[in-house]
Design a protein that fits this description.
Blueprint lengths: L11 H26 L1 H9 L5 H20 L3 H19 L6 H23 L6 H11 L6 H8 L4
Length: 158
C-alpha cells in the first residue's frame, strides 16, 4: 500500500471515524476533568469503594491522557486499548450487582464502550488524525534514524 496515496482526499468514512473518536473520547475527558476539579470529593467517594488515592490519580491521568490520545488521533491504538481494558475492569469490579437495574445499565455501557475502543484498536485513527500525519511524514522521509518508526507504521502499530 502506498502510504501517500490519496493523501489529500477526505471521504465520508474519515469524517465518521473522527466523529466517533471525538464522541468516545468525550466521556473520558469529561469524567477525568470532573474528577480532577473535584479531587477531594472523588478521593472520598472512591475510598468508600476501596480505591486508594494513588489509584484515583492514575485513573484521572488515564482518562485525560488516553482521552486526548483518541480525540487527537495520536497513538490512538494505545489509548483505545488502555481505555478498553479500563472499561472492562470497571464493569467487572464495580457494576456486577445485577439485581440493580442501574448497575446492569452501567455494566452494559462499559462493555459497549470497551467494544468501541477495541474496534478503534483494529481500525486505527483514520485519515483525520495526528497518527496519519506522522505516518505520512515518516514514510516520506529517507532519514535512517526513522527506520524503527517506518517498521511500526508498516506493521500497523502507529
Amino acid at each position: 500500500m502506498d502510504h501517500l496515496e490519496n493523501a489529500n482526499v477526505i471521504h465520508p468514512m474519515d469524517m465518521t471515524l473522527l466523529a466517533g473518536r471525538l464522541l468516545m473520547a468525550w466521556i473520558f475527558l469529561h469524567e477525568g476533568m470532573t474528577l480532577a476539579l473535584n479531587f477531594d470529593a472523588a478521593v472520598i467517594a472512591m475510598a468508600k469503594l476501596g480505591v486508594f488515592e494513588l489509584l484515583v490519580v492514575a485513573v484521572i491521568a488515564l482518562q485525560l491522557g488516553a482521552g486526548l490520545s483518541i480525540a487527537l488521533g495520536l497513538l490512538t491504538r494505545l489509548g483505545a486499548l488502555s481505555l478498553g481494558l479500563f472499561c472492562l475492569s470497571t464493569a467487572l469490579m464495580f457494576h456486577t450487582d445485577f439485581a440493580n437495574h442501574n448497575e446492569i445499565l452501567h455494566f452494559e455501557k462499559d462493555l459497549a464502550i470497551a467494544g468501541g475502543m477495541f474496534v478503534l484498536v483494529t481500525t486505527g485513527a483514520g485519515t483525520l488524525s495526528a497518527d496519519r500525519f506522522l505516518e505520512r511524514r515518516i514514510m516520506a522521509s529517507d532519514d535512517k534514524s526513522r527506520k524503527p518508526l517506518r517498521r511500526a507504521v508498516e506493521r500497523g502499530i502507529l
